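Model it.
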Amino acid sequence: MSSEITTHQVSLMLDELGINEDEGETSQSFCEICVERKENDEMFTGESCGHSFCRECISRHVAAKLEQRITTITCPAVNCKSVLELERCRALIPKVVSDLWGDILCEELINVSERFYCPYKNCSALLVKDVVGENPEVIRESECPFCNRLFCAQCYVPWHSGIECEEFQKLNVDERGSEDLMLREIATKSRWRRCTKCSFYVERIEGCQRMTCRCNAQFCYVCGAEWTNDSHYKCA
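Modeled.
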């Protein structure tokens, strides 16, 4: 059996190594993160440090830092302090990652006291408080420019129709839902009263103003206060 290597076998070996036989150069580079050889057009090389990584690894590195709200992202090589720039990485990373990076950078430029987010969870767009002059007009009802839904610019919650901000802010967290506010608005228009003990709504059909709730608490249907013989015989 001959031990000589044929020209065809050499070509196959060079192809497997990513080496161009005519130019004598490799068409692949080594990624320092996944420790694999990748085509040169799939690689990213640090501009100031020269460390090489494949697009997939550099994208994961950037995304992981952004999840931690870190915008000054350094080269992932050990002990490397070289900073990665958004514009240089933009073409190498997915659009959703580059957009997030850009949004966080813009967010950092806005003073914390001047920014808030759309209260609708499926929007959450970054918004800026519009303060003009020394005595700006108090704005309550506002519209998100991204999802076009109404929200309260004082409470930073979805618009609470039929209830003032001061009253809304006194409500418990479990009473601020849209259905709870709708029920509250109906109760106000229908002049229902809430039990002073369990907060259950009561509607008076007939009889005296002294209400006895299902929890046995007694209250005045006229003023809504707890019923006492000393104070309610002259209730207005």
